[in-house]
Specification:
By secondary structure, the chain is mostly beta strands. It has two helices and 14 strands; from the N terminus they run ββββββββαββββββα. The chain has a domain of 168 residues.
């Protein structure tokens, strides 16, 4: 079975990480963590393949610790199609042991379709094919009131006061020259019951030419350290067969419908 997956910009998704030895990270998760998975822009004429490794480290005051690791694979072809593959959870296999469920998705921005399927040993071979809804016409928001403008100005001033930006220069990651930056968010003392200020930093390294996020490090004193890094990167056309379900899979078509907010209420 080939490994697959494609990405680039930040898209939050729910990953599962397990409390286990850092020397033997488990693919099965028991602790849900918000992980940064890199999603690729549907850009044509810029094919690539990438392997992304996300690790999470969190220590507790009682000496316990959580160590987790997720490896994902991403592909984008010249037509802009994107394939991603990852294991987000586990199921019990035919032998009674936990096995990772490999989730695969393919997005076609030209045809406005998406397909997803799961690779496991339970015998299910179903691929779900979705027709994406047509884009909705843009609506003009009503003008802000004076009170809303003042509130926005206060929020922007507070955000600026409780954050800072740092230029980290350049370095090479997976053979690619990258530009680095760090943003730091500060929770002032007393705001959340904290005796001292709390700082959460996010470090990002972006490829100088392709503008692909190659490394992201989030350091949060409350939730631990999460590192997502591209460990293998190739600017080449991926195998076309990766963008369709494997032979023997039944395709179930579904249409995603758009329901206006007013109609849903």
């Amino acid at each position: 079975m080939s490994a697959l997956r494609t990405t680039l910009v930040a898209v939050f998704t729910l990953g599962f990480i397990t409390a286990t030895s850092p020397a033997q990270p488990s693919p099965c998760g028991v602790v849900a963590q918000p992980l940064m998975i890199y999603g690729a822009f549907p850009k044509t004429g810029a094919p690539f393949s990438a392997t992304v490794q996300t690790t999470h480290e969190q220590k507790f005051v009682d000496g316990n610790a959580i160590h987790g690791q997720i490896v994902t694979h991403y592909y984008r072809d010249s037509a802009g199609r994107i394939r991603s593959e990852t294991s987000m959870r586990c199921d019990i296999g035919a032998d009674g042991q936990f096995r990772p469920l490999i989730n695969i998705s393919v997005n076609d921005p030209v045809a406005r379709t998406s397909t997803s399927w799961t690779v496991n040993d339970t015998g299910e071979k179903v691929a779900r094919f979705y027709h994406q809804p047509d884009p909705q016409p843009a609506t003009t928001a009503p003008p802000l009131t004076e009170e809303q403008r003042k509130l926005n100005a206060l929020l922007q001033e507070r955000s600026h006061r409780n954050s800072r930006q740092e230029d980290l220069g350049t370095k090479t990651i997976a053979g690619v020259l990258c530009d680095g930056s760090r943003s730091v968010g500060i929770t002032p003392a007393g705001e959340d019951g904290n005796e001292l200020p709390i700082e959460m930093s996010t470090e990002v390294w972006i490829a100088h030419d392709s503008r692909i996020v190659m490394l992201r490090i989030q350091d949060d004193p409350q939730n631990g350290r999460t590192t997502t890094e591209v460990t293998d990167f190739k600017l080449a056309e991926p195998d076309p067969s990766l963008f369709a379900p494997p032979p023997g899979y039944k395709v179930e078509e579904q249409v995603v419908t758009f329901v206006p907010v007013s109609a849903a209420q």
